[in-house]
TrEMBL record:
This protein's record includes keyword Membrane: no
Signal found in the keyword field: yes
Pfam family, one: PAP2
GO CC, any one term: outer membrane-bounded periplasmic space
Signal sequence interval, chain numbering: 1-22
Transmembrane spans: none
Keywords (A to Z) from UniProt: Signal
Domain Phosphatidic acid phosphatase type 2/haloperoxidase: 94-207
Gene3D superfamilies for this protein: Phosphatidic acid phosphatase type 2/haloperoxidase
UniProt name for this protein: Phosphatase PAP2 family protein
Length: 229
């Protein structure tokens, strides 16, 4: 009888373990709540046609060096953001910071996912064969809004929190980071602007969270060092 009771207890433990881990993982995941209505909606067909002309114009002016940067910017990471502004990106020294920014990126993408799913806007290279994309993997999701532009804006705001003296330069890098998606033919300008709005909302939410700010402040010395401060 005792042996049977132990066996039942063991089976119950196995059944409950996955659920317990899932709850623990869910509690650890960084999330942000934003007002997605502020992100806006995609323009109508007439405006989209004008935007397509803007994309083609941007591509006509694309230089090899700008395309190279756009390809590097395709990776949504703290390291790629820093490298694009000639900052030091020591992966080992920034391990905790990179993890935190990766969590922030995932939280932003999760917050913007309902908007992407709602509109399913085709990307420029789907709308016109004239669009010549960068030689990297084509993004499968819808065009509106641009999570890359959101990431650039988010990273700029988080870094400006610990390095306010570099705010102007960081914001310029954030803008450039998002515009790389137009350079590659992956987004329209309105996608970029909507993504930036999402990035600003996410940054505000995170910087209003004492637990997140504490984690950000803890890695501030390493980040300031990477920025040459």
């Amino acid at each position: 009888m005792k042996r049977q009771a132990l066996l039942i207890a063991g089976l119950l433990a196995l059944c409950l373990s996955p659920a317990t881990h899932a709850v623990a993982k869910d509690k650890a995941r960084l999330t942000v709540v934003i007002d997605t209505a502020q992100v806006g909606t995609p323009p109508d067909a007439a405006a989209t046609a004008k935007e397509l002309a803007s994309v083609l114009s941007t591509q006509a002016e694309r230089t090899p060096s700008r395309e190279e940067l756009a390809v590097a910017d395709a990776k949504q990471s703290l390291s790629s953001f820093l490298k694009g502004m000639d900052a030091t990106a020591d992966k080992d020294g920034l391990k905790k910071a990179r993890r935190l920014f990766k969590e922030a990126t995932a939280a932003l993408e999760e917050a913007l996912a309902p908007v992407k799913g709602r509109f399913e806007r085709p990307r420029p290279f789907r709308a016109s064969a004239e669009v010549k994309t960068c030689q990297i993997k084509l993004p499968p999701s819808s065009s509106f809004p641009s999570t890359h532009a959101g990431t650039g804006t988010l990273f700029a705001a988080l870094l400006a929190h610990i390095a306010p003296e570099r705010k102007t330069e960081l914001e310029a890098r954030g803008l450039d980071y998002g515009w790389s998606r137009v350079v590659c033919g992956f987004h329209y300008p309105s996608d970029i602007e909507a993504g930036r709005t999402g990035g600003r909302l996410a940054a505000a939410a995170l910087l209003n969270d004492p637990a997140f700010v504490k984690r950000l402040d803890n890695v501030a010395p390493e980040l300031r060092g990477a920025l040459g401060l």
